[in-house]
Design a protein that fits this description.
Chain lengths: 112, 112
């Protein structure tokens, strides 16, 4: 059974800092891995999706990597801003169309 | 495109009542799924569908029923509400060629 863990549960950084959020999964036979952002009281917004054949994906200041052999994914946020404050969730899928197994998230606070 | 829409936004039920949470998407996505989000538990998969007429159970299906008669709609039925079903419910959809998940804004359910 796939299990997804995110450490740390919360993180506070000053504006401008580069930071890394960690995600680990127990079953390396994943189909894809996705990173989401959730603002308080809101739904989830997809940030990046990495297929199992890929090593990384980039979008603006965000870069996500995937290492299936070690069961790890990281989300790198460059030059953090107060607007980046949110909860970041990673989720793994083991088969096409079978939906996602989520970690419990990392709540990020960026102070100005 | 409206994306993924959910109704109602908020609902209060008494124990034993039944209700249907509505979910619709206008992106012609094959895959749809329902999650519940609880403090300390993260998002957990309730039911999912890979196409019209096809549904399957997720991690926490007990007390919930689904059907998928059209590509656009995927309603979630609570048969006899219990206080343990107090939660925030999210519907999501994705296209099988990409599988980036798009989430609705959520329905907050309180069962007294």
């Amino acid at each position: 059974k796939q299990e997804v863990t995110q450490i740390p549960a919360a993180l506070s950084v000053p504006e401008g800092e580069n930071l890394v959020l960690n995600c680990s999964f127990t079953d390396s036979a994943i189909y894809n891995l996705q990173w989401f952002r959730q603002d308080p009281g809101k739904g989830l917004t997809s940030l990046l999706l990495i297929q199992s054949s890929q090593r990384e994906q980039t979008s603006g200041r965000l870069n996500a990597s995937l290492d299936k052999s070690s069961g790890r994914s990281t989300l790198y946020i460059a030059a953090s801003q107060p607007g980046d404050s949110a909860t970041y969730l990673c989720a793994a899928s083991n088969q096409a169309g079978t939906a996602l197994i989520f970690g419990k998230g990392t709540t990020l606070s960026v102070s100005s | 495109n409206a994306g993924v829409t959910q109704t109602p936004k908020f609902q209060v039920l008494k124990t034993g009542q039944s209700m249907t949470l509505q979910c619709a998407q206008d992106m012609n996505h094959e895959y749809m799924s329902w999650y519940r989000q609880d403090p300390g538990m993260g998002l957990r998969l309730i039911h999912y569908s890979v196409g019209a007429g096809i549904t399957d159970q997720g991690e926490v299906p007990n007390g919930y029923n689904v059907s998928r008669s059209t590509t656009e709609d995927f309603p979630l039925r609570l048969l006899s509400a219990a206080p343990s079903q107090t939660s925030v419910y999210f519907c999501a959809s994705s296209w099988k060629g990409d599988e980036t998940q798009y989430f609705g804004p959520g329905t907050r359910l309180l069962v007294l």
